[in-house]
Request: fold
Amino acid sequence: LSATVVPSNLLPTLEVDAQNLQGYARTFLEGLPPIHYNVFVYIISFFRECLLFQQSNQLTTAKLARICVSCLVSGNQMDESKQANQRRSGMQLLMVHFLESSLI
Reply:
């Protein structure tokens, strides 16, 4: 892909919490372009398989969520502003949700 898997316009602009997580996750998935959606689902599925072996690979959902955000969202862009950090934190919560739920 010529761009990050998760376009910056899909990053959370509001705080993501337990009450709006499910709705935001659905909106997020619906907003992904088809090729990005396919790549996203494939990678999340792969990471879910990795979590099945967390005793031996010592991966946790939180670690994988951080990896997802740094690779799928940020790419080479490392904006350290307060707003960017808040958006990344919200995206990490979404990634944890995708890794732990059967939404996709």
